[in-house]
Design brief:
- With about 400 residues, the chain is α/β, with parallel strands linked by helices.
- About 30% of the residues lie in helices and about 20% in strands.
- The chain is built from 14 helices and 15 strands.
- The strands form three sheets. It has a nine-stranded mixed beta sheet with strand order 12-11-10-9-8-7-13-14-15. Strands 5-1-6 form a three-stranded antiparallel beta sheet.
- β11, α8 and β12 form a beta-alpha-beta unit.
- The longest helix is centred in the first third of the chain and has 13 residues.
């Protein structure tokens, strides 16, 4: 006599579905269709929590309500329902958390000096050089854009004193951008710039300077990308735009620094009057214009969920700060950091390249691994891995949740 085994329905999530369970609800985000569901059924939430803890990707359906919800999820391509014997091993669906898009921080911390030339220096993607600005820790304008709002300083040290370390960093195989920030036009700056140009790939160099210095740098090689900053509050220099035709200069882009809505109108008028083609607007925090940021920068649920984001981007947001990871900022006094708004990690005159990179990985002041999972106001939010990475705006405003989500 053959004994019929009882079969049960088993639901599993598709591997392209992102799941974020926090407190009394869970976000399911389909990275294939960019659709989402928010679950608040306590039984299913418990099942999902068990899945996360046990690194599994499915569960048996034990009630009509569970089946009803999971049928709806299946119809929207969040998962599938199959029938199996309860004593059988369910099909294994690889949880996507096993796939890492970056080296794990714990590994780098336990073996920070291992294969330095191959491992750690390969994490360097971007280098910011402030060639005539010492590190500033007070002025709100200087901290945000030292190349635009520079203080009077007697510290006129050049990069030539530690060019050997700079050169090693610049020759990293994965380095794809070197930002050169210039706040004064002088012979020393041009000399250092020419030295860099002679030794490095021009395609990696991006020059940043303010409108006051724009005309002095028009003769710089046309193949270098150049960003010119125009602060409507600080630069009474519309006459400079009259003299300089940005549309004829190769690879020039003007960035208007905006502090209120009136300045947006002023910038619009300048763009229209002088027929500027390549330009951008950048909100600038002055300590009193949070309303501008609420209108232009703050996110809500709709704006977060309307962005199409894939699984790799979600993993990246979980593991690293995609804005700052791989970036080293070096000032002309030798101080270096991973974000110019945060304390320095050391001085390149005292630290060799290995120590510089190790500090960027392991220091508490480093922002390479500063994700929303690590800040108290964001870590319990179901959207924290869909949100953009923590940026300079959060640091200068002093508020990590630049959103309208309660």
């Amino acid at each position: 006599m053959t004994i019929m085994k009882f079969r049960k329905e088993f639901f599993y999530f598709e591997p392209y579905v992102h799941i974020n369970h926090q407190n009394d609800k869970a976000l399911l985000y389909n990275t294939f269709t960019n659709k989402y569901e928010i679950l608040n059924n306590k039984i299913l939430l418990h099942q999902i929590q068990q899945n996360i803890q046990n690194h599994t990707n499915g569960f048996f359906l034990n009630s009509p309500l569970e089946k009803e919800i999971c049928c709806e999820l299946r119809n929207n391509y969040f998962g599938e329902i199959i029938t199996i014997n309860p004593d059988e091993v369910p099909p294994f669906v690889l949880p996507t958390e096993f796939l890492k898009v970056e080296k794990n921080k714990e590994f780098l911390e336990t073996a920070p000096y291992r294969n330095i030339s191959e491992n750690i220096i390969s994490c360097l993607f971007e280098l910011d050089l402030y060639i005539d600005n010492p590190y500033q820790d007070d002025d709100i304008y200087c901290k945000q854009l030292p190349s635009v709002y520079f203080p009077t300083s007697e510290k006129e040290k050049g990069f030539t004193d530690f060019f050997s370390q700079i050169e090693v960093l610049c020759n990293s195989s994965n380095l794809n951008k070197i930002n050169i920030f210039i706040s004064r036009s002088n012979v020393e700056n041009l000399h250092f710039l020419n030295e860099l140009k002679n030794k490095l790939d021009h395609n990696k160099l991006v020059l940043h300077f303010n409108i006051e210095n724009a005309i002095n740098y028009t003769q710089i090689d046309d193949d270098l990308t150049k960003l010119v900053y125009y602060s409507i509050s600080f630069h009474s220099t519309e006459n400079k735009i009259k003299k300089f035709n940005f549309n004829r200069a190769n690879n020039f882009k003007i960035v208007f620094l905006i502090e209120d809505e009136e300045q947006i109108s002023i910038a619009d008028e300048i763009v229209s009057t002088y027929k500027i083609i390549d330009y951008d607007y950048k909100p600038l925090f002055n300590g009193n214009n949070i309303d501008l940021f609420k209108d232009c920068v703050f996110l809500d649920e709709e704006s977060i969920l309307s962005e199409k984001i894939n699984k790799n981007q979600i993993f990246r947001n979980k593991e690293i700060n995609a804005i700052d990871f791989g970036r080293i900022v070096i000032f002309n006094d030798g101080q270096y950091c991973t974000n110019n708004l945060l304390p320095p990690l050391g001085n390149v005159e005292n630290d060799d390249v290995r120590q510089i990179l190790n500090n960027c990985i392991s220091s508490e002041s480093s922002t390479w691994f500063l994700t929303r999972n690590n800040v108290s106001i964001c870590k319990d939010c179901i959207y924290n891995q869909l949100c953009p990475p923590i940026s300079n705006y959060e640091h200068v405003i002093g508020k990590f949740n630049l959103c309208n989500i309660s």
